[in-house]
Automatic annotation (TrEMBL):
The protein's name: Xanthine dehydrogenase small subunit
Record keywords: FAD, Flavoprotein, Iron, Metal-binding, Oxidoreductase
Domain 2Fe-2S ferredoxin-type: 2-88
InterPro entries referenced in this protein's UniProt entry, alphabetically: 2Fe-2S-bd (IPR002888), 2Fe-2S-bd_dom_sf (IPR036884), 2Fe-2S_ferredoxin-like_sf (IPR036010), 2Fe-2S_ferredoxin-type (IPR001041), 2Fe2S_fd_BS (IPR006058), Ald_Oxase/xanthine_DH-like (IPR016208), Beta-grasp_dom_sf (IPR012675), CO_DH_flav_C (IPR005107)
CDD domains: fer2
Domain FAD-binding PCMH-type: 186-359
PANTHER family from the UniProt entry: XANTHINE DEHYDROGENASE
Superkingdom of origin organism: Bacteria
The protein's Enzyme Commission number: 1.17.1.4
Gene Ontology molecular function: xanthine dehydrogenase activity
Pfam family, one: Fer2_2
Length: 476
């Protein structure tokens, strides 16, 4: 078994003996004594633990992204470089701007903000006020307020980052050497971590360990460890499986590999419809979007995942693989019941195939949550209607948060078929939803609220298509 080999603030590390579910945050703070990285929530919400990862981009350069160290498992650093706030030295343009704009009071959140803005500076995305706001959507400040922090981001963005191409190529080559070839296998304290490089190796590895837990960004599984203290003896990392990391366009279709992150998929999904772009902008926080994957959001079977309802409404097809066998099924059929999916031991999600919208089709998606940014949906609604003239020929109304699985509203759909999509038909469909759903009451919303919000989302879609301006807030 090999050690975990990575670069930490430019210095090589080889770590062994720790359990694979040791978080990067705990290793930094307790083993490396790099205490600038803070623990706030231990679930990827507050951003106090933000660090920047670098890895080869496959074209001789580097890809850099900010991630939450609190839910990232230590073996995920293998063959990558991680930078903490200590690497910036105290005089970086981002740090200088934070001081000059008075963007820190208690200072607990400051290192996380600095690293998040640093990632934006490296990627040259500190371009305007909205871009900076979007960038720090995964960082929580309790005392300073976001105004000075946004101003600091804008000021830092005025200092151009000039990449040293040869140096980056050398670093990429060094990281590839650290990564090595074949399946990376690490064992510590009775836990096993396996990281295959391609889909065939993944199929073989999963077949040999069908009870293993698949992880990519661990934005969900990480909480099983930090909040539920669950023991995960075998984990298979899919974040390096090159075959699962492609987004491909084909005539009338978009193929998204299961290991494509939300950040990487966002622009292509927005190309299908602007509502998908807005949905991805509001999907968790920036650091979570940089780590979490499209396949993970589907495979975990969550009834409140944001993407499945939208993809179901669009008529997406899911591609799975087990060993040498592959199969496909409509995405909606993958979800059987709460906690149950149509997936056998050793079978994994490989890709999702999304049909592009046709000229006679109309689409709408609404995320209804208590906060605009970095919040879990109370109701996720997505609709696609196909028209024959003024008549609804096809209706696909999909919801999250309304049942134990992402689910279509069959009775409401039937109420629309063969009718013009006017307010009369819409209200009939709204009434029919009562036969489709009996949502639960929990901390996010009551049952009555969820049903009313779902109904009103459809009404809003109807009124918008008919040119009626609505004043319904996106966040209820």
């Amino acid at each position: 078994m090999a050690p975990i080999r990575f670069l930490l603030n430019g210095e090589e590390r080889a770590v062994e003996g720790l359990h694979p579910t040791t978080t990067v945050l705990n290793h930094l703070r307790y083993s490396e004594r790099l205490t600038g990285t803070k623990e706030g929530c231990a679930e990827g919400d507050c951003g106090a633990c933000t660090v920047v990862l670098a890895e080869p981009d496959g074209a001789g350069g580097l890809k850099r992204r900010a991630v939450n160290a609190c839910i990232l498992f230590l073996p995920a650093l293998h063959g990558r470089a991680v930078e903490t706030v200590e690497a910036l030295g105290g005089a970086h343009p981002v740090q200088t701007a934070m001081v000059e704009k008075h963007a820190s009071q208690c200072g607990f959140c400051t290192p996380g903000f600095v690293m998040q803005l640093y990632s934006g500076w490296l990627n040259e995305t500190l371009t305007d006020r909205q871009a900076v706001k979007d960038l720090v959507s995964g960082n929580l400040c309790r005392c300073t307020g976001y105004g000075p922090i946004v101003e600091a981001g804008l000021e830092a963005g005025r200092h151009e980052h000039v990449a040293d191409g040869p140096a980056e190529a050398r670093l990429a080559s060094r990281l590839e050497a650290l990564r090595g070839a074949g399946v990376f296998s690490y064992e510590g304290e009775g836990g096993l971590w396996l990281s295959p490089p391609d889909v065939d190796a993944l199929a073989d590895t999963y077949a040999a360990h069908p009870d293993a837990r698949l992880v990519a960004g661990a934005t969900d599984v990480g909480l099983w460890v930090t909040k539920q203290h669950r023991d995960l003896p075998v984990l298979i990392d899919v974040s390096r499986v090159a075959d699962l990391m492609h987004v491909e366009e084909a005539p009338g279709r978009l193929y998204v590999g299961a290991a494509v992150t939300h950040s990487e998929a966002a622009a292509k999904l927005a190309g299908i419809h602007p509502d998908l772009g807005e949905l991805m902008r509001r999907f968790a926080g920036h650091q979570v979007r940089n780590a979490g994957t499209v396949g993970g959001n589907i495979a975990n079977g969550s009834p409140i995942g944001d993407l499945p309802p939208a993809l179901i409404a669009l008529g997406a097809t899911l591609h799975l693989r087990k060993g040498d066998e592959a199969r496909s099924l409509p995405l909606e059929d993958f979800f059987i019941d709460y906690g149950r999916q149509d997936r056998t031991p050793g079978e994994f999600v490989a890709a999702v195939e999304v049909p592009l919208l046709q000229p006679f089709e109309r689409f709408h998606a609404s995320k209804i949550a208590k906060r605009m940014d970095s919040d879990i949906s109370a109701v996720m609604a997505a609709f696609k209607l196909g028209f024959a003239g003024e008549t609804v020929a096809e209706a696909r109304l999909a919801f999250g948060g309304m049942a134990g699985i992402p689910k279509r509203a069959a009775h409401a759909e039937a109420a629309l078929i063969g009718k013009p999509f006017d307010e009369v038909a819409c209200r009939a469909a709204m009434a029919a939803m009562e036969a489709d759903f009996q949502p639960i009451t929990d901390m996010r919303a009551t049952s009555d609220y969820r049903l009313k919000a779902a109904q009103n989302a459809l009404l809003r879609f109807c009124l918008s298509l008919r040119g009626v301006r609505t004043r319904v807030a996106e966040v209820a």
